[in-house]
Amino acid sequence: MILLVLIASVLILAVTIYQFREINRDYHENRMERKEEQIRQSIDLTIQKTTYPVTTENLGLIFKEEIYEIAVVQNMNFNIYSLEGELIKSSRPKFENDPISLCLDPEILNQLDASADKRYVERNKAAGDQYQASYTYIADRQFKPIGILNLPYFEDNSFNDKELNEFLTRLGGVYFLMFLLAIGLAYFISKYITRSLETISDMMERTDLTRRNEKIHLEKPGEEIEKLISSYNAMIDELSLSAAKLAKSEREQAWREMAKQVAHEIKNPLTPMRLSVQSFQRKFDPNDPDIAEKVAEYSKTLIQQIDTMSSIASAFSSFAEMPAQQNETLNVVKIVKLALDIFNEDYIHFIAEEEEIIAKLDRTQLIRVVTNLVKNAIQAIPEEHNSPRILVSVAVDGEMVKISVADNGIGIGKEVEDKIFEPKFTTKTSGMGLGLGMVKNIVETYKGTINFTSQPGKGTVFCVKFPRVASMRTIK
């Protein structure tokens, strides 16, 4: 809208200036032609009345006094030249000061002679003004050319220029008001139009598959906006149905995977238990002098496999148990150091940036996070490693407390980086692969983040961040 007003104002300005110039040009051309015709009639009348022979040589005598009378009556000065272009008579006594030459240019004589109507108009500038000069033949009573009439004409555009400036000033004021009005209208119309779009945009940004989304309800929306709202509301309905189906499918898939994993892990200890029982049945002899030793060995094997099944059940139970937010105010440095006391490896080192870094966490869950990360680090270092090293550090990172566990083990390959936090995924020959999945579950519950960097063959660094709080004197 603003652009249209600007374009219209520029076009009207250009057209107005062009029109005024055309009017001025037509006015001066017509005026000069009228004056020229009137002067020619006066000259013809003077020639008809003169007693001198009508020849080129007598033009100076014929118009000796009459040239001034004609100039006064017509209010226009003019000059009379011979057919060779020499000045014979001028209505201005001091014609030497005028831009009129004493002898016409041969080009003017050629142009006048070549013209069909025996008339030539010269256009030029003089003293900064537009200047025109017309040249026509003066004929005798038999219409034979005996001289050349030169009518100099200076265009006076001061009045028209003044009128143009006044008109453009008024027009500029009108278009300035229209421009301000266009800005105001454009602003309010755009706000009115985009209000509905902003509402739709905000609702679309808040659309989330994991929660219930609200529909859009607007009073008297435009036809296009109403179609867009209807499409959005229909999409929300379909999204809700899809989310419900997806959640149900994910739950079913999760239970299937968990059931498969549980069955697989339980079958592992059941196989040696079955073989032990079958072997015991074949070789059992109550009279065997070594029967007590064999029963003890058999019992030990069964107890080991039962303990394995118990640890499997505990691991799945721990993974399924969502950590509750206790919001204990803890000194993270103290708790992490306490969690490391259960490890006997002398290559585990601990450093802290400060003696006291405070966060609101559950003590037990924080210990589980640290111990699982450290266990993974220990298992990532081969037994034949010459100089194993694990470094656990606690530091402040902006508004977060950062716990890092770095090892110089085998590292994590690029092909498995995306699966490292998935439940039941493991690169080890034993275990259920639930440790890192449980750690990620705990960390995200407390609005934290966990990530890692690794170089195969050189080691891995796991980094956990939790929101921290200001330091307090009373620490649990």
Automatic annotation (TrEMBL):
Its EC number is 2.7.13.3. GO terms for molecular function: kinase activity. It comes from the Bacteria. SMART domains: HATPase_c (SM00387), HisKA (SM00388). The keyword ATP-binding applies. SUPFAM superfamilies: ATPase domain of HSP90 chaperone/DNA topoisomerase II/histidine kinase (SSF55874), Homodimeric domain of signal transducing histidine kinase (SSF47384). It catalyses: ATP + protein L-histidine = ADP + protein N-phospho-L-histidine. Residues 261-470 form the Histidine kinase domain. The chain crosses the membrane at residues 167-189. This is histidine kinase. The lineage of its organism: Bacteria, Pseudomonadati, Bacteroidota, Flavobacteriia, Flavobacteriales.
